[in-house]
Amino acid sequence: MVGRLWEWWRGRRALVDAAFLAPLVLLQLVTMPSAVADPADRYRVTVLGYLLLSAALLVPMVWRRRWPRATFAVVSLVSFAQWVYGTQMLVANATVLMGLYTVTAYCSFRWGLAALGTAVLGALLEAFRQADGDWRSARATLFVFAVCLTAVWILGLHMRTRRAYLRELEERAERLERERDTEIQMARNTERARIAREMHDVVAHNVSVIVVQADGAAYALDSDPGRTRQALEAISSTGRTALAEMRRLLGVLREEAAGGAYAPQPGLGQLDDLVEQVRAAGLPVTLVRSGSPPEVSEGRALTIYRIVQEALTNALKHGGPRTSAKVLLHYGDDEVTVEIVDDGRGAAAPDDGHGHGLVGMRERAAVYGGEVDAGPRPGGGFEVRARIPVREEARA
Predict the structure, then answer these.
(1) Other CB atoms closer than 10 Å to residue 205's CB: what's the count?
(2) Per-block average pLDDT, block size 10, for the chain (396 residues)?
(3) pTM: predicted TM-score of the whole model, two decimal places
(4) Whole-angstrom Cα distance, residue 114 to residue 151?
(5) Among 108, 120, 118, residue whose Cα is nearest residue 160
(6) CA-based Rg of the chain, rounded to a whole angstrom?
(7) Is 145 a domain residue?
(8) CATH at residue 281
(9) Rounded to an integer, what distance in angstroms lies between the CA atom of residue 216 and that of residue 210?
(10) Is Transmembrane helix one of the keywords (predicted)?
(11) Which of 112, 130, 148 finishes a domain?
């Protein structure tokens, strides 16, 4: 509630500027008795004239940030008319300083310099008027005016520079955020293209099985009906798997994947070789399997292999010295759960901001309706936990 009220208040510039004028208005009213008409002084103003002059100096300041040059011009002209008439300076003449600050802070450097020159000229005229043309008497007053005007001008110049710096930082942050989003999107597209190339072997394998079984069924149609029935069942099962892979492939890709080399892809049977490779690279790894291995499609097996590979690679790169890892592979009735944990640096590991391994893991798991959770472990180390359904009906 307080935050919304503050945002609403900051959005009302006129109200904010009017609130800043409140002390000046109060002080102007307090000094009114000493400035109104005195029969012995023909330059003193009446109460009505005092109020009109005060309004002419104060009211434009309500819109000083919306029209900084116009409001400064108005108060400067009113002050000049006041000098021509011979009226003594009022508290409300401080609006010239406010206008000078606003023009310097919100306009270009040239406009700020022009406003400073105008204010110095007015101070010079007022100093000579107060000294009745005596230069020696006017020097002290002019010095005070010059110090005040210079200080206000420097403050406005500083605020303008600071505001430009903050605006540049905001623009840079927005640009970096857009670049980061673009980089992540490019990583996702690259990962999806790679998934498409890898799944090509899976789909091609299923189609090849269908062709071979169909040829066998046609050959044994008359001589061995039992074998024909078995071949047709294999064709049906393999066809469903291939159709599911094709549907998933078309759902993942957003644009045509670039062509690449096709090669047989690893699966669950190659996890032992992967663990040996990582051990040879210097990371002690333990592979623990539990449960009864279900029938897992080639695409799912490849996904599990890649997740384990990426997690162990990250542990090898970022875990630090004397790091060990453990791979826990559990086969369930409806899903395969794989957990990769290490005792390395965890949250303290350096990150150059260019890695997209976790993005690739989540993209791969999402293809099959699975999910991946990754993050530092309490007390040190890093953990990656993935859940991959093994049947289409288990995805829900």
Answers:
(1) 16
(2) 63 70 76 59 64 84 86 90 80 86 89 89 82 70 85 90 88 87 80 67 63 73 77 76 67 49 66 84 85 82 88 81 89 90 70 60 85 86 90 53
(3) 0.46
(4) 16
(5) 108
(6) 40
(7) no
(8) 3.30.565.10
(9) 10
(10) yes
(11) 130
